[in-house]
Specification:
By secondary structure, this protein is an alpha/beta fold. It is about 30% helix and about 20% strand. Strands 1, 2, 3, 4, 5 and 6 form a 6-stranded mixed beta sheet that branches. The longest helix has 12 residues. About 40% of the residues are buried.
């Protein structure tokens, strides 16, 4: 593919043959990618060797190969619905060593990029600084602008809670 150095990945048969796909991730902070959510959830279906190749792949433009790999994966296996669990969110040194926190809701939608952008806004993560959303801009996939996303239910300001992201504290300008 033109976006990175990984030429191919193995996908489970059900992923490419399924009539419908519903993704059910838990939103978590991530020390290298800032967060994981709807877009990265399908990454868990890949075999270890393909995950390793994507994590180690750093294209010339400086973006993490994992983010570009997730965009490639999403572009060929688009889910019909993403439902992100915001009741067991992980903050801190996630995804494995984080601390659970509860936003008391779920975020659902047909566009995982819009879902993740909404989750980031709920948690105080700046999408303009995440590798995922840099890859979204490069690949021209999905909706991420707040003005392009229709919200139903509670407003972001009603559920907003700034996540503790200690790995970003030294990056403030």
């Amino acid at each position: 593919d033109h976006r990175g150095d990984v030429d191919y990945i193995f996908l489970p048969r059900f992923l490419v043959e399924a009539d419908h796909l519903i993704s059910l991730p838990i939103f978590k902070t991530h020390v290298s990618m800032m967060f994981t959510g709807a877009m990265k959830n399908l990454f868990g279906l890949l075999i270890r060797a393909d995950k390793d190749r994507m994590h180690l792949n750093f294209p010339k433009n400086g973006q993490a190969g994992c983010a570009l790999g997730v965009m490639d994966l999403w572009s060929v296996s688009r889910e019909d619905l993403s439902i992100v669990d915001m009741t067991r969110v992980t903050e801190g040194y996630g995804p494995l060593g984080g601390i659970p926190t509860d936003f008391g809701c779920v975020v659902a939608g047909k566009d995982p990029i819009a879902v993740d952008a909404t989750c980031c806004r709920m948690t105080g993560l700046d999408i303009t600084k995440t590798p995922y959303f840099q890859a979204v801009l490069d690949c021209n996939l999905g909706k991420y602008k707040e003005s392009d996303i229709e919200l139903r239910g509670r407003k972001i300001k009603e559920v907003f809670k700034k996540l503790w992201t200690p790995y970003l504290e030294g990056l403030k300008k």
